[in-house]
Design brief:
InterPro entries: ENP1_M14_CPD, Peptidase_M14. This is Peptidase M14 domain-containing protein. GO terms for molecular function: metallocarboxypeptidase activity; zinc ion binding. With about 325 residues, this protein is α/β, with parallel strands linked by helices. It has a single domain, classed as Zn peptidases (Aminopeptidase, 3-Layer(aba) Sandwich), CATH 3.40.630. The protein is built from 10 helices and 10 strands. The chain has an 8-stranded mixed sheet, with helices on both faces. Strands 1-2 form a two-stranded antiparallel ribbon. β8, α8 and β9 form a beta-alpha-beta unit.
Length: about 325
Amino acid sequence: MDHGTGKAGGKEWDSLQYGPERLEADVEYLQRRNPFLEVKTIGYSVAGRPIRAIRFGSGPALLQINASVHANEWITSLLLMRFAYELAEAALPEAGGHAQHGQMLPAEVLAKQVKVWLVPMVNPDGVELVLSGPDPASPLYADLLRWHGHEGSFHDWKANLNGVDLNDQFPAHWEDEVRRRGLNGPGPRDYPGSAPLSEPEARALADFTEAENFDMVVALHTQGEEIYWNYRGLEPPVSERIALRLAGASGYNPVKLTESDAGFKDWFIQRFNRPGFTIEAGRGVNPLPVEEAGAIYSRIKPLLVEALKAAASLK
């Protein structure tokens, strides 16, 4: 794999349609080439696809970065996996590599101060649906067509395979979010489900977060070039300061949100009273064109590096 030219498996990073199969191949490659990292399956999707998590570093500060909670924001998986490859190639004592091109990856921070878990594709079924359309062999095929209004393209689909929006699934004023959305059943977006954590993907992410007891979390979404850092005044004072650091590294705009509930970041802040962030990468209409991935990554990488340093500063 040639990261000097931004290539993965002979393909440019910004020319990949990045779905579950590509993710599995890349995770297997990373694990084979880098025995110092850890890979675990934190759960399974509606269709039984594994939800992977990849660990780098061994420090006391615990950071989680996840991506593709929303299906048509699958470009975030590509961005996070590119970061994973660069972490593996960084000048870590375990890897013996050298950081290349752009901002140096903080090898000492990773090795001695931070343990970071990447969850690159929380919603693999939804991503596959966006990229390839519904599978006629799926028992949900007829339902998916009906929920989507029998339209041909599923490019606008945000939900999981059950038509539930995973970022409206978390037990942080979930009932308020249900009332705000006003939807009675499954669809491409914004249906919070029948109960909090009713969907296996949301449950897997919540259980993993509880088990690891993270000090800080970052959720990658698209789009808008914004950083959401607060939740109902429950966030610790350090959250705003970290948001400003992330903004300084990326040029993104830190935004104090109101009238938004039941998201992963919201639940993490409410549950743990620790810093949690939603990053809206890029600008445009979802799904963002994959050809823009390189330009988006040039701003996301320094933000993620700063997130590593910020997490380390919490200990």
